[in-house]
Amino acid sequence: MTKITSGPASHVYFSQRLRLHYVDWGNEGAPPMLLVHGGRDHCRNWDWVAEAFRDDYHIIAPDLRGHGDSEWSVGGSYNIPEYVYDIAQLVHQKQMAPVTIVSHSLGGMISLQYAGLYPENVKHLVAIEGLGASPERLAETAKKTIDERLAGWVDELRQASGRTPRRYASLEDAFRRMQDENPHLSEAQARHLTVHGANQNEDGSYSWKFDNYVRIFRPYGLTTPEIEHLWSRIACPTLLVRGTESWASDPVEDGRMMHFRNARLANIDGAGHWAHHDRLDVFLDLVRELLAE
Question: H helices within the chain, ranges in order?
Fold first, then answer.
């Protein structure tokens, strides 16, 4: 495993009046690389990847709105287009285009749509399980009428409004929860992710650094054909990554791969949803191969 040495510097930028946090690994003047984390995660989950590429790239890793050390959205508004706007603002404000993007899960969904919106701004793109719900799951959702979907969303929001963040008596308890969530993690990985992913509350307990509202999927937004159209506009070499032990379906088998014009799929054995943690060396080799194109 790549050893983490000196860490990055913390900075903020503003998007839709939100104060958003990112870390900068230095090496200004080198080609820019953006690392975009997944849902209920944080920017420091990329530290091992950043350490591997920091000598060759100027790496920036943001905390998405509602995550990590970024502000929570008033009203709990966390739609993919709003996340895309936040990334567009960061790339614009930091003058990062053309940028290489490495992303995971929710971050992959955001990055794929950004690359389809601004294909000229992205040089290489890696998305670990960033295609969203499988066609099978989307078909099940489509069986519900709009009133059923909206009523379900209202119920979820109401429940979320009364939910308090889970509190752990100690950082050690939070660490054990992190290990339970992903048994592939080494002890060092789990501790690192826990230390950077939790805040201490006033009573001494610990809670994760994300807004409970980020859990809720909105019953509105871009349609599947609109998302597929954005995928078809991506011009840069693209690597889609999937862990064979994950819940995510294979995009070749389910037909979603056909919407990309310059993409390939890598299935990583022995990895779940967090392939960049579970098989770091394999993942880094795949990324290096893409970057050489």
Answer: 47-53, 80-93, 106-117, 135-142, 146-161, 171-181, 187-197, 224-233, 275-278, 280-291
